[in-house]
Design a protein that fits this description.
heterodimer, A: 308 residues, alpha/beta, Elongation Factor Tu (Ef-tu), domain 3, Rossmann fold, seven-stranded mixed sheet, five-stranded antiparallel sheet, 17 strands, 33% helix, B: 461 residues, five-stranded parallel sheet
């Protein structure tokens, strides 16, 4: 199927959802396009909103034919009973989700899954976000701030046009560094350049939390390793049920098999086998390619080249 | 006139060559004539032994007598007084080791086909009457059921029939537990499970999907919300792997994942968004019923070769004989006395073979089965591109880790007393969450027993 085909099918689905022919469950109350590829949706899910914490994730399913897709929670409003997700339109399901509007419903929305970001005992932290990963780094940064930690934030984007959540990060950080790969905004360079600089300057962090593309997280870990700084990463392996049943999300951490859905999604980055995660995440890449030209697959290829 | 045939009346089935490539039901069920013919093999024993073998005490000779008379409605009604889910148990129960193994007809010849008759009655009722059960007057007392598999559904049904206001929480998007994510469509059509859920709703059970208890609500919060008792039927948990090299390769997955993609997410249907790996040759490691289900799904998903790789001999396989027989008919190749030692990948990280070693049986081990021992130097490579590990599961940690006072055994299974009550007052449990991976009917039996115990517990207060 070519790209047009994908949009056509997504449009059809969208039409069916509008018609309300299926049992509608979770209402979209707010939609905001953060950049050309990244969308924010605020969804009515009172049970989840009541219990969600930074670092946890949800699984959505658009309709009866839909797949179960995990997304880390970008925010929640306990009073309003809503949960916010921010996602990049990279595959069939996220494109279809991005085509929905305020007032539409999605079939399934389940969570909060996984363990929250561990903020206890952390006095000073550096939160590193990359690309759309910044969306889920933000609530964790906020959680650290709320727990009384001094929070440094490094966020990185490819270029100025895809920068998201800049003001939000400023509001929850003590020091904020914005990096672009091409230097079109903020400082020029990868997030690791800034992190290296801060560590060399003598900044003492109790923890570094890195959320973003796999190669970025791997290189953040490489950067912090010589300094002996505990580094947590939020992993996004392939997953189906998300409740500890299918084992699809298994990752190797310190030589042991762990399940991201119940043991994670955050793990000690110095122990994670990133190459294995990268390879496993590409299992259905070929199929996705058949469906659409995905950005994620290209990202995987780039990542592999980097890791080699 | 009793039918003295030594053999069961055969049940029509799809041709093996045809069914090996489709997901339609394998067994087609008895016609009314066949059912009566088989029912006439029952000798109506004064002291029926078959009933003692049934975990839910179905009044077997009584319902069979009604089938003999051709009064199928009455037969169904007798079954449903003790069994909430006959269309399911009639299909997936291991009758040969339960009711049927006690049948006197089995002493010389084959026992009465109790399971097939049970299935016939349930199907006949659903197709001809399908009356929804009537709601019992509510006593207003709230009971929570966690998990909507066979244990949860049975407990919910029995409690609702006693007038309790039951809420059944399901973590996935569809109710039914293992009946929808695990057991394939060709053994248990999902429309039948959905019909059973509809019946529960007719009884007044509130079914809440997408609710992962232990995360979105804890057991303690359920009590705070006014539930007077909680039944935990959360099922088996995380899949086990062998810890051999190559298990992280693309194309290696647990039977739970393979079956969930195929059954719950309907990956065999091209209209479904969820993908499942396309395979030329699949090795399923394990010898249980789940392994047979996975292997038979592999065949139906288009693999040219599907192997069952099992370290003991065929006689030691825990799978039901009928499942093994069906699998063989469909062309599944059995590599018994054979154990994987390494999974081999190609340059893209995809499985391209599995190194195995041949085994022989030694002295009996703790389980009483003869322990398989490796034959040195007998390694060989099985040419496969997909490996499905069907080695069992370890209990899910979500509920035990978020519920203070809920004790588990060494394996992580919930500990219950003779009344199915856990170490937390008012919290009952049953099914795989207690026993580890077992059968649908044992879970149903536990759900039934727990419902009775919950009733007594609440009445005492």
């Amino acid at each position: 199927m070519n790209l047009m085909g994908v949009f056509f099918v997504a449009y059809l689905r969208f039409f069916i959802i509008l018609k309300g022919r299926i049992r509608n469950m979770y209402k979209i109350v707010r939609k905001k396009e953060l950049n050309a590829a990244v969308t924010l949706l605020e969804i009515e899910a009172p049970f989840i909103a009541k219990k969600a914490h930074a670092g946890q994730f949800i699984i959505f399913r658009i309709d009866e034919q839909g797949e179960r897709v995990p997304l880390t929670i970008a925010g929640y409003d306990r009073e309003k009973g809503t949960v916010t997700i921010i996602f990049q339109k990279v595959g069939f399901s996220t494109i279809a989700l991005g085509n929905l509007n305020e007032g539409d419903y999605i079939r399934d929305f389940v969570g909060p899954l996984g363990k929250p970001t561990h903020t206890e005992g952390v006095k000073r932290v550096c939160v590193v976000g990359g690309g759309v990963g910044c969306a889920i780094a933000l609530p964790s940064a906020a959680a650290f701030k709320e727990a009384g930690a001094e929070v440094d934030v490094i966020v990185g984007f490819r270029s100025k046009d895809i920068v998201i959540l800049e003001d939000e990060f400023r509001a929850v950080s003590d020091n904020m560094y914005l990096m672009t790969d091409d230097g079109s905004y903020g400082e020029h360079g990868f997030v690791t350049v800034k992190l290296q600089e801060l560590l060399e300057k003598g900044n003492q962090y109790d923890a570094v939390l890195a959320i973003g593309p796999i190669p970025m997280m791997k290189f953040v870990c490489k950067t912090t390793e010589p300094f002996g700084v505990k580094t947590m990463v939020s992993l996004n392996p392939i997953m189906i049920d998300g409740t500890g049943m299918c084992g699809g999300c298994r990752v190797t951490v310190g030589g042991e098999t762990k399940f991201a859905c119940v043991d994670g999604p955050e793990f000690d980055g110095h122990k994670v086998d990133f190459a294995e995660l990268m390879s496993r995440n590409a299992t259905y890449c070929q199929r996705e390619k058949e469906v659409t030209e995905t950005h994620a697959c290209r990202m995987d290829a780039m990542g592999k080249a980097l890791i080699k | 006139m009793a039918n003295m045939s030594l053999k069961k009346t055969p049940m029509p089935e799809q041709d093996p060559k045809v069914r090996a490539r489709n997901f339609k039901e394998v067994s087609l069920g008895y016609t009314a004539e066949q059912a009566i013919e088989e029912a006439n093999r029952c000798l109506k024993c004064k002291n029926p032994k078959c009933v003692t073998g049934c975990p839910v005490n179905i009044r077997i000779p009584e319902f069979i007598a009604k089938v003999q008379e051709g009064d199928f409605k009455a037969a169904y009604e007798i079954i449903s007084t003790t069994n909430a889910l006959p269309a399911l148990s009639g299909r997936v129960c291991p009758q040969e080791s339960q009711c049927e193994c006690h049948c006197v007809r089995g002493i010389k010849g084959e026992p009465v086909a109790i399971g097939r008759l049970e299935r016939f009655c349930a199907d006949w009722y659903r197709e001809n009457i399908n009356a929804m059960p009537e709601k019992v007057e509510s006593n207003g007392i709230k009971v929570a059921v966690v998990g909507s598999g066979p244990a949860g559904m049975t407990a919910a049904s029995d409690l609702a029939k006693k007038g309790y206001a039951v809420t059944m929480f399901e973590a996935l998007h569809t109710a039914g537990g293992v009946l929808v994510y695990g057991i394939p469509e060709f053994r248990l059509p999902k429309a039948i499970v959905a019909n059973e859920v509809k019946k529960l709703e007719a009884l007044g059970v509130e079914v809440m999907t997408n609710m992962v208890i232990g995360r979105v609500l804890t057991i303690d919060e359920l009590f705070e919300m006014g539930y007077k008792a909680v039944f935990v039927g959360s099922g088996a948990g995380l899949p086990m792997f062998m810890n051999i090299p190559g298990e992280a390769l693309k194309g290696v997955m647990s039977a739970n994942e393979y079956l969930t993609r195929t059954n719950l997410m309907k990956a065999y249907d091209e209209n479904a968004d969820t993908p499942v790996i396309k395979s030329k040759a699949v090795a399923v490691v394990g010898g249980g019923n789940v392994a047979m289900d996975a292997a038979r799904c592999g065949m139906r998903l288009g693999a040219e070769h599907v192997y069952i790789v099992y370290r003991r001999g065929e006689a030691e396989m825990p799978a039901r004989l009928e499942e093994v027989h069906h699998a063989k008919e469909e062309g599944i190749e059995f590599k018994t006395l054979c154990n994987p030692i390494e999974i081999i990948g190609d340059e893209t990280g995809r499985v391209c073979g599995m190194k195995c070693i041949r085994m022989e049986l030694g002295e009996p081990d703790a389980s009483g089965r003869r322990r398989p021992v490796e034959i040195p130097g007998s390694e060989f490579i099985l040419d496969v591109d997909t490996v499905v590990m069907s080695l069992g599961t370890s209990p899910n940690p979500l509920i035990r880790s978020t519920t203070p006072g809920l004790d588990t055994n060494r394996k992580g299974c919930l500990i219950v007393d003779e009344n199915e009550m856990t170490t937390r007052e008012g919290v009952f449990a049953g099914g795989d969450a207690v026993t580890g991976a077992a059968t649908v009917i044992l879970a149903m039996g536990a759900g039934k027993k727990a419902a009775e115990a919950i009733h007594n517990f609440i009445q005492k207060q």
